[in-house]
Design brief:
The structure holds 2 protein chains of 2 kinds.
Chain A (H helix, E strand, L loop, with lengths): L10 E10 L2 H16 L3 E7 L5 H11 L7 E7 L4 H8 L4 E5 L8 H7 L10 E5 L16 E7 L6 H4 L1 H6 L2 E5 L11 H9 L7 E3 L8 H14 L20
Parallel strand pairs in A: 2-5, 2-6, 3-4, 3-5, 6-7, 7-8
Chain B lengths: L2 H18 L4 E10 L6 H11 L10 E6 L3 E2 L6 E2 L15 E2 L6 E10 L1
Parallel strand pairs in B: 1-2
Antiparallel strand pairs in B: 1-6, 3-4, 3-5
Helix pairs in contact in B: 1-2
Classes of the chains: A alpha/beta, B alpha+beta.
């Protein structure tokens, strides 16, 4: 446009952004992450197919982790019902339901809002049980310290190859319902092989919520995560702090 | 599925940029979609075509560039073949996903400004 009298053609400006479309969600997730870490809480995003055994694994975790003295908490997402939150609360993991309506995944904003209704600050380990879905939840950062994907032996050995984005996002895969293996034509070696083709660093634990198999290793993994994220030594609900030595 | 909420985020971002720059019109936008971004290109395009109606993007063509997932070794830079174990065939280092393979990015907007 002519700067003398304001006449002339408008100009076409190419604006370069190179910005993630999920930048808004990522920002909200960073806030959640900061809150969790400052409060000394290990927050985990638990994902998996509907029926993979997410809730059952958490119920069993409450028993398996009892000797640790950890305070556990959860929010549990489903399109409808609060059944999972009720089960978890009964198992000793105080939980609230997030009923998403038709949303097939959690996002950081939904998680943030849900935290107003649950005593997460006082927990040592806080589970965000995502909607049962191996597709959409993988791409939404919620502010968790780590992603745990539950994959049951009844889902087939090639499941990881079918859902590479989800397994790429996994920090740990819990292979669940291992007590059923004798009743199935299931080849664990094939599953392990499939995981190496979608995860550069496959971290896999074989568990059974029913028999307790593998749960000690799962609890040990949780303890290591708390250590690696600098959460040990923080009293639940308070960030540890030191005072400088008094002057003499 | 979630393509709608992604398109909504995209259009909101375009509207904000247009407002900030006092733009008269949006002429084009370009998005890069990685193979492992967890978003289906066809569904994304359809969602865009559908939900841009009534927005600043109503007549705006979307240039959607798909980025295939490729892997390489972070140590020796060797390419790690698709479909195989994600470890360097030469030195066994865990493979690294090459840039763009898992991202959904708004690269740019063409704006008409006064």
């Amino acid at each position: 446009m002519c700067t003398t009298c304001g006449c002339g053609d408008a100009s076409l400006v190419p604006v370069e952004l190179h910005e993630k479309i999920l930048a808004g969600n990522d920002r909200a997730a960073r806030h959640n992450r900061q809150h969790f870490l400052e409060a000394g809480v290990l927050a985990l995003n638990l994902m998996g197919s509907p029926g993979a055994g997410k809730t059952a694994v958490l119920e069993a975790t409450a028993r398996a982790a009892a000797s640790k003295g950890w305070r556990l908490g959860a929010v549990s997402a489903d399109l409808a019902t609060d059944n999972d939150a009720v089960r978890l609360s009964r198992a000793g993991i105080p939980s609230r339901a997030i009923t998403t309506g038709q949303a097939c995944h959690l996002d950081a904003e939904l998680v943030h809002r849900s935290l107003h209704d649950v005593a997460w600050r006082e927990t040592d380990v806080f589970f965000i049980e995502n909607v049962g879905n191996l597709v959409c939840p993988a791409i939404y950062d919620l502010g968790q310290a780590a992603n745990v994907v539950v994959l049951s032996v009844t889902e087939g050995e090639d499941k990881p190859l079918k859902y590479p984005t989800m397994f790429l996002a996994a920090d740990l895969v819990l292979v669940s319902k291992c007590d059923l293996v004798p009743h199935l034509d299931f080849d664990m070696a094939k599953l392990d092989d499939a995981l190496t083709r979608v995860m550069p660093r496959p971290r896999v634990l074989k568990v059974s919520a029913r028999t307790g198999e593998g749960l000690d290793q799962w609890v040990a993994w949780l303890a290591r995560q708390r250590l690696e994220h600098g959460l040990v030594g923080k009293v639940a609900g308070l960030a540890a702090h030191t005072h400088p030595p008094a002057k003499r | 599925m979630h393509e709608y909420s992604l398109v909504e985020a995209l259009i909101t971002r375009v509207e904000a940029e247009a407002r900030t720059r006092g733009a008269l019109r949006v002429h084009g936008l370009s998005v890069r979609l990685g193979e492992l971004a967890g978003v289906d290109a066809g569904l994304f395009q359809t969602a865009y075509d559908t939900f841009r109606a009534g927005t600043i993007c109503a007549e705006v063509p979307l240039t959607l560039k798909q980025v295939p997932a490729s892997w390489s070794c972070p140590s020796c830079r060797a390419a790690v073949p698709r479909g195989g174990p994600l470890r360097c065939p030469a030195c066994a280092e865990p493979a690294r996903l090459d840039e763009g393979g898992d991202a959904l990015t708004l690269d740019g907007i063409d704006l008409e400004v006064p």
